[in-house]
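note to self: dont lose this again. the chain is below, predicted strucutre after it. 245 aa total, dont forget to put it in the shared folder this time
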Amino acid sequence: MMTLNPCSGDLPGVFGETMPFLCQGAAVTLQSAAGGAALAIVIALVVGLMASSPLRTVRGVARVYMEFFRGTSVLVQLFWLFYAMPILTGYQLDKVFAGVLALGLNLGAYGSEVVRGALQAVPPSQREAAIALNFSPLQRMRYVILPQAFVEMIPPMNNLLIELLKATSLLSVITVADLAYEGRLLVNSGSDQLIVFALMLVIYFLFSYAITLVMRFVERRAARMVGRGKPRRRRRATAAVEAAR
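---
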């Protein structure tokens, strides 16, 4: 059985001319988005926990980071890391690494506010129950607060990850050969710009939709783990009863 490779140069017409290059750019986009997302999630968790600390100094450090990176343009941060920092330090970052670092630092600042808000949203009664059970502060955070807050983090984190994916198009300004960069090269070389931009839209949409599907799955699993979702068998039984009625 013959399978169709969407990245093949054997595709008819303009698709065969453009898709190999767009697929190469899409792979770089995925690599940059995955690296930026991993860094952003780690930063968001650490800084979000710091922002919820009872220590004023720790909260202050977290707040300075959050306000600075949320209040400045990610494009300017990217320029600073790739162009300005070598002037100050004499060390040139790899362009993909500079892009991942800029995306992670910027979106991590937004994500840390999501983490802080989710931690604050856990009902005080849950904290009081953990104290009554003689849990240590670490045990309270690990077994009671974080699992419940994690469910609240997922929907806004889904939006942030999609924003991070779309922000990877900014890496083309420092000549990272991502999807946006390859698309621009194809248009400049004479390819049909309507088809090229349409293909780029479809590729970005598919990536974004894949992120949404994964995050919805994670959200359902997390909700069941803290008792907020119905078990799968119970849902099926309920559906069968409703159908019988």
